[in-house]
Design goal:
Layout (H helix, E strand, L loop, with lengths): L2 H7 L2 E7 L6 H10 L9 H7 L5 H12 L5 H18 L1 E8 L1 H5 L5 H19 L2 E9 L4 H11 L8 E5 L11 H9 L3 E6 L5 H11 L3 E4 L7 H10 L3 E3 L1 H6 L11 H7 L3 E3 L4 H4 L3 H12 L3 H13 L5 H13 L1
Parallel strand pairs: 1-2, 2-3, 3-4, 4-5, 5-6, 6-7, 7-8
Length: 332
C-alpha cells in the first residue's frame, strides 16, 4: 500500500473545522441568489481570487462577508451537509465542528435557526453516511466578554446538542485571559473546553488556555515549540493540539510546508492531530492536509497511523468507540 492509499484508507476524526469555513464559493453564490442577497463579488472566480490572504485578519474579512448570506435554517443545513459529503470522500468518520453563533446572531439570525440547521445535518450524516459528529460553539475573541456571556446564555437551552465551547477569531491582542470568567461559567454548566492559542499569538497564550481556561484541547498550538517548559507540560499531560497544516501555510504561520513542525512535535511525543480548519478558504480538506505534510515532511506509514490514532484519542467520543477505530487503524 502506498502512502497515498493509506491516507485514503485511514479512518479519521476531524477536531478543528469551522463550519462557516467550509463554505465553497459555488454554494455561497447559490444561497446568495436563493436569499436575494448581494455579495461583493461578481462571479465564483472572483471569490476564488479573493482567497489570497497575507494574515489571519485578511482571511477573516472575507470569511465574515461570506457568512452574510446564511439566513434560514435550510442554509445552515446545506452548508453542513456539503461538508459531511467531503468527510465521506476523505473517510472522516467523526467530526467535531465549530460554529460561530455571534457571526449570525449579530445579523439578527436567531441562535435556534443556526443550531437547528446544523443539528439536522448532523443527524442525517449519522443515518445516511455513518458519520458521527459533535458541535462546539465558539466565542469570537475580538468581541467583548459581555457579548460572550450573552451567547453562553443563549446556548444553555440547547446544552444537549452542544458538547463544548471554544475561542476563535483574531488571536493577537485578545488573550485567553480576556474570557476567563466566561469559560469558568461554561465549565460549571458542563461544557467541555477548547481554545485557539499559539497560532499567531505567542506561546504564553497556550499557558493561559491551559491554566486560566482549563482546556481539554488546544486548537493550533504550533508556537508551543518556542517554550521548552510548555512542551514538557503538553507531553506530560497528553494535551492534544489540533494542528491545521494548510491553514498555517496559507496564513503565513509557516512560509513553506517543509518548515512545518508537526512531525517534530509528533516525534517529541506531543499528541498532535491533523485538521482542515477552514478548508474552502485554505485549499484543502482532511486528506489534502495529510498529503501535503506527507510529501513535504516525508512521513512514514507508522507516523500517518499515529496521527490518525491521535485524532480519535483526542476526540470527545466514548472510550469504546475510540478503541474500535484505533483497532481498525492498527489493522491496516
Amino acid at each position: 500500500m502506498t502512502q497515498l492509499d493509506l491516507i485514503r484508507a485511514l479512518p479519521k476524526a476531524e477536531l478543528h473545522v469551522h463550519i462557516e469555513g467550509t463554505f465553497e464559493p459555488e454554494l455561497m453564490f447559490a444561497i446568495a441568489q436563493r436569499n436575494q442577497i448581494e455579495i461583493p463579488y461578481k462571479s465564483v472566480e472572483e471569490v476564488k481570487q479573493a482567497y489570497n490572504f497575507h494574515n489571519l485578519q485578511s482571511f477573516l474579512d472575507i470569511y465574515y462577508a461570506g457568512a452574510q448570506v446564511l439566513i434560514h435554517e435550510q442554509d445552515f443545513y446545506d452548508l453542513a451537509w456539503a461538508y459531511f459529503e467531503k468527510c465521506a470522500e476523505d473517510h472522516v468518520v467523526h467530526t467535531e465542528m465549530f460554529f460561530d453563533p455571534q457571526t449570525h446572531t449579530d445579523r439578527g439570525v436567531a441562535f435556534e435557526t443556526v443550531l437547528n440547521g446544523l443539528k439536522r445535518a448532523c443527524d442525517d450524516a449519522k443515518t445516511k453516511l455513518g458519520i458521527s459528529s459533535h458541535l462546539i460553539m465558539c466565542f469570537l475573541r475580538h468581541l467583548s466578554e459581555e457579548a460572550a456571556f450573552e451567547t453562553l446564555a443563549q446556548a444553555l437551552p440547547y446544552k444537549a446538542h452542544i458538547i463544548g465551547v471554544g475561542l476563535d477569531s483574531s488571536e493577537v491582542g485578545h488573550p485567553p485571559k480576556k474570557f476567563e470568567r466566561v469559560f469558568a461559567k461554561a465549565r460549571e454548566a458542563g461544557f467541555l473546553i477548547v481554545a485557539h492559542a499559539g497560532e499567531e499569538g505567542p506561546a504564553d497564550y497556550v499557558w493561559q488556555a491551559l491554566d486560566l481556561l482549563q482546556v481539554n484541547r488546544i486548537d493550533h498550538g504550533v508556537r508551543s515549540e518556542e517554550d521548552p517548559k510548555l512542551m514538557q507540560r503538553l507531553i506530560r499531560d497528553k494535551m492534544p493540539l489540533t494542528v491545521c497544516p494548510l491553514s498555517n501555510l496559507k496564513l503565513c504561520v509557516v512560509q513553506d510546508m517543509r518548515e512545518h513542525n508537526i512531525r517534530r512535535l509528533l516525534q517529541q511525543g506531543v499528541k498532535v492531530t491533523v485538521n482542515s480548519d477552514d478548508p474552502s478558504y485554505f485549499g484543502g480538506y482532511m486528506n489534502d492536509n495529510f498529503i501535503a505534510i506527507t510529501q513535504a515532511l516525508d512521513l512514514s506509514e507508522d507516523e500517518l497511523k499515529h496521527l490518525a490514532i491521535n485524532s480519535f484519542e483526542a476526540s470527545f467520543i466514548s472510550e469504546q468507540d475510540k478503541q474500535q477505530w484505533i483497532e481498525k487503524i492498527q489493522a491496516l
